[in-house]
Amino acid sequence: MAKKQRDISVSEFFAKNRHMLGFDNPRKALLTTIKEAVDNSLDACEEAGILPEIWVHVEQTGESRYKASIQDNGPGILKKQIPLIFGKLLYGSKFHRLRMSRGQQGIGISAAGMYAILTTGKPIKIVSKTGKKKPAHYYELRIDTKVNKPEILNGKGDGEDIPPGEKGEQYIQDQGIEWVTHHEPESPGEAPKPIAHGTRVTLDLEAKYQRGKGSVDEYLEQTAIANPHVTLHYIDPSGTQRSYRRSSDILPPEATEIKPHPYGVELGRLVSMCKESTESSLSGFLTTSFSRVSPSIAKQICDKAKLSTRMRVKRIDRDHAEQLYAAIQDTKISNPTTDCIVPIGEDQLLKGLHSVVPAEFYAAATRPPAVYRGNPFQIEVALAYGGNVETQKITKDLLRELLYETDARTVRQFLILTFNGLGPDAADKILKESKLGTRKSPNKLKPKEIDILFDAMQNVNVNEGQSMNVYRYANRVPLQFQHGDCAITKTIAQTNWRSYGLSQSRGNLPSGPVTIMVHIASVWVPFTNQAKEAVASYDDIQKEMRLALQTVGRKLGMFLRRRMKVKQQADRRSIFRRYLGEVAQAVSDINGTQKDDIYEKLLEVAKKKTAEADMVFDESGKAVDPNSANYGGGVLIVDKDDDEMLADMINRPVEAETNGKSQQEELFDNDGDEED
């Protein structure tokens, strides 16, 4: 038996357990590949102080085979580092640093390359350029999983250098190497600028492309929300090209690296740090190895541990380390500095959410930094209320494609799984209107049945049955799987949204046309697994989430209550106006007073009594009268058509116009006396 035992490399382990990294099915594998490459591109651009521009191209090359290409305008990668970054698992610069970053383990993009090679046998192709006048480096490589090392396949094992300028562009074209050579012009008539530097990775893999929840399309859309400073160009397998233009030219400030905090170090790690330290004294070890430990704090720790501050670090054994560990826990030490994390910010949250999610009310809140197990973190929440559900935004052709692509067994399941925020009640409403039945298979619908379903999706008001749409983020990266296991989803469901004007059954997400995004920024996000799909349930983290959710909830509640008050006063005014003419005529008949004079006086009284019907808000959500509304900042209100606003409020379709005016226009028509 001893002869059969051998050690295995980390790449060999994950090759057999790739589900742990997010490659457990073809659809998820495509998303994980795109996600890891885009995350690396964003980190590289931000660290170099470059406004990111990213090109994503997904192309179908055969049945269940796809080619994914991701290019950025980052600083490029040094030639000797390229094979190690893309062909060696657990190789990177982020694992050892305590600072906020998207990637942490150095395992993402190399794992995607390993999966691609395992499923198609085709090598990873990388092009990287560090300057306009410098050559581009081109590599084709594979991972030797037995030893976790890259194997370079082109250029006699050393890659190829592509010269700069027109000669290099011609070489790229002749060899069929994929590379976007120029930026798109920012304005019509402007000459496109050449791309001076950047990196492109191309992988052929076994995958499945499907729209809807958990898709590449959704991931890129959510990435644009949390990163308003990025421009994304995306070509999907059908050849459709779309771009998410940056809504901000401001790069997030660079996070600062910090030392570990004493509260976040466990006993075994403390023993290892003592053995690795080059400091001679115990006091010097404590002050140089940890953040927030001054000489006076180090002396307090040593005194409580009954150890000398001059004790040699190399002489510390396990018993001494245990005394030291207990003393650290018993000593009051300030929280670590928070410049190691960079939140998105309320203004940027509002810009990002508004650019992607159409709604009428937006609110954002950023909590002060907090600490869990010695690790700084910060919670941000943004909320959008109003707008149509996704079932009312698609075209009939897109619906046919979605029905053809789906794995759902029934139309009801298809509706719930494909469209964000569409709950079971809303799906049942659509099915009842279409009369298709609950067991109908989406792949077997006839053209006439598809037309009926499309009409029902467009016309049925599903606001009441619509479930809250949740966007989860960790260090600006969207989390799209394992919703039920994530602390973010659990905390949202545990929050009492009924007090903020939304309907909610116990233990479930609230109902209504609401989109909410929750972002955790931390030097070390506590994911539940290596696939980085869900945040673990730490009490300190959930507490901060709950407080941030309550902050935006209060702002939403204020908005809904004020809007309902406007509606109630508008209804009162309509009742007054309905009978004013008859009252004026009756008074005129009794005392002979002019009917028009009486009518104007009564109308003036009606306006005064229902003045809140004329409440107008500016762009930031504040009332024109500053005493009428104060949301406390972090709010954006978008003007909406009165008919749409009233229809959303009372949960009914917009009423048909009569005599050239809608009913709501008549309610607010005050003979030209009101402000424009």
Describe the structure.
With 676 residues, this protein is α+β, with helices and mostly antiparallel strands. The chain folds into four domains: 10-244, Heat Shock Protein 90 (2-Layer Sandwich), CATH 3.30.565.10; 262-330, Helicase, Ruva Protein, domain 3 (Orthogonal Bundle); 343-388 and 466-652, Ribosomal Protein S5, domain 2; 390-459, Helicase, Ruva Protein, domain 3. It contains 20 helices and 16 strands. The strands form two sheets. Strands 1, 2, 3, 4, 5, 6, 7, 8 and 9 form a nine-stranded mixed beta sheet that branches. Strands 10, 11, 12, 13, 14, 15 and 16 form a seven-stranded mixed beta sheet that branches. α2 (26-47) packs antiparallel against α4 (108-120), α13 (411-418) crosses α14 and α14 packs across α15 (447-459). The longest helix has 53 residues, at 539-591. It is globular, with a radius of gyration of 30 Å. The chain starts with 9 loop residues before the first helix and ends in an 8-residue tail after the last helix.
